[in-house]
Write a structure and sequence with these properties.
2 domains, Serine Threonine Protein Phosphatase 5, Tetratricopeptide repeat, 267 residues, mainly alpha, 66% helix
Amino acid sequence: MPDRRLSRLTLLLILATLSGACGRGFKLSRYANNESLFSAGVEQLGKKKWDNAVSAFEKLTFDLPARDTLLPLAHWYLARAHGGRREYLLAAQAYNRLAESFATDSLADNAMYEAARAYQSLWRRPTLDANYGEQAIGAYQSMLGLYPESELKDEAEKQMGTLQEWFASKDYESGLYYFRRKAFDSAIIYFKDVVKNHPQTAKSREALLRLAESYEANGYRDDKKDVCATLQERFPSDKEVAIVCGAPPKEVSTRPPRDTTSLPDTL
């Protein structure tokens, strides 16, 4: 997707020098200038020779002048190469350096998005430490704040939704751990966090149900009544809600009783 943006002389440079970049082994000393090393690095990246690509682009990020148009691309490809080696933290750092150093570059929003994706890749299961998930959310939010018109906006919001589901699952599973051990006060804390912080997630309904059950177990009748009112409003036909909360209260008519005193007697 970002590769389509490389509408610079870089592509011409790559095509012109690609054939000369091949040879036995890969040695940085073989390349007389930054342009030929850049082309060789792109070739190594295309061949998935991640180690060689990292070596080439890492050197270029130090050697290229600050205003060289190849420098943002060197950061970009360095990040891609780290990603190829599954070094997602290093990839995120390289993407962030691009975004921070070249905020007006056409790749800046892409770099922030890819940094967020790299952090997201480091959070492998909802039950694990969510630090990288939080970093991913922060990166997506920063991208959307700085580049609200980015073509990656919809995809970033989609990925944020996925992360919210994971955050909700993590809190819900923590609450369930205490719930199963009848430590209901602790369970209540986590279930309330799910409902408050992730109300649009699938786990919100389950958290409300377990919250009602926790209140019932602790004898918190008024609290259960409030939660059940929310459940019955949101899920009026849900069978599990009916089991946990009972039937919703019937509506009491506010219309005055019908006056029958003036009606004629029937024959």
